[in-house]
Amino acid sequence: MRPDIIDLQAFYGSRQGQLVRRLVGRQIRLLWPELPGARVLGLGYAVPFLGLLAEGSERVCAIMPPAQGVAPWPPHQPSRVALALEGELPLPDRSIDRVLMVHALESAEQIRPLLREVWRVLADGGEAMVVVPNRRGLWCLSDATPFGHGQPFSVAQLKEVLRSMLFAPGRTATALYVPPSRSRLLLRTAVAWERVGLRWAQPFAGLLAMTAAKQIYALPSAPAKARRRKPAYAPALAAERVSPSRDQLSVPAATAGAARTAPARSTGC
């Protein structure tokens, strides 16, 4: 089940959501420290983290699915958000350098069409980053957060999905070791939880962030001789159609002319 745009906005506007934005944004920035001149696309609900990637990039835009709903972004500026189906992104081939997917893969109705479209719009040498709930973490068990909806992934599962769609999994980062509670005490100690978790409990993080490079495969070309080769029977059939028979060649020309000029014999009935 996909969270609604109103619920997503309410979550990221709360103190807990602001904490998630800061902790997850730090890991995204570690994986993508600089994107000079890059064209960046956010899928799902990635707008809380797109502002971190806007500095130095050529342009940043977002696409949200109809089942979730859409909201304008950035605030007080011309909107850079579009509404489109996951399997039909309104972008040309190889037009994007980086794709950030947040609240996208785990909530997708069909994963393969979504990743196929991401592969299509990525430029050669482009890279995607997928942020999903961790199957071993606590955040995928809480319905009070957007990460408790949809399908969580383990590291091995996420790599398998990406490889099956012609992506090469790259670096992995983890975040959200604090329990998914709105307790003020836990929110105040979240940084300490994060330090301990990054050092000692990485398999139990709440979220996984993984980069994936676009792979390009080329079919081997046929050898030159094989491409020029023709069927052995074709010349023979053509010769039969246009050449006279051997018997015709053996008949003298004079005989053939006499046969044409000799009068017909009367049978005398």
Describe the structure.
- This protein is α/β, with parallel strands linked by helices.
- Helices cover 37% and strands 19% of the residues.
- It has helices spanning 5-13, 15-31, 47-53, 111-121, 155-164, 184-188, 190-200, 224-228, 233-242, 246-250, 253-261, and strands at residues 39-44, 59-64, 81-83, 96-102, 122-133, 167-175, 207-214.
- A seven-stranded mixed sheet has the order 3-2-1-4-5-7-6, sandwiched between helices.
- Helix 4 (111-121) links the parallel strand 4 (96-102) and strand 5 (122-133).
- Helix 1 (5-13) packs across helix 2 (15-31) and helix 2 packs across helix 3.
- 33% of the residues are buried.
N-to-C series of helices and strands: HHEHEEEHEHEHHEHHHH
Q: Round the mean pLDDT to the nearest integer and report it.
A: 85
Strand content: 15-25%
Low-confidence stretches: 218-222, 224-269
State the major sheet: 7 strands, mixed
What is Rg? 34 Å
Count, helices: 11
How much helicity do the residues have? 25-40%
Outline: globular
Distance between the termini: 104 Å
Classification by helices and strands:
alpha/beta
Count of DSSP strands: 7
Strand arrangement in the largest pleated sheet: 3-2-1-4-5-7-6
Oligomer: single chain
Please specify the SSE layout and strand pairing.
Blueprint: H1 5-13, H2 15-31, E1 39-44, H3 47-53, E2 59-64, E3 81-83, E4 96-102, H4 111-121, E5 122-133, H5 155-164, E6 167-175, H6 184-188, H7 190-200, E7 207-214, H8 224-228, H9 233-242, H10 246-250, H11 253-261
Parallel strand pairs: 1-2, 1-4, 2-3, 4-5
Antiparallel strand pairs: 5-7, 6-7
Helix pairs in contact: 1-2, 2-3
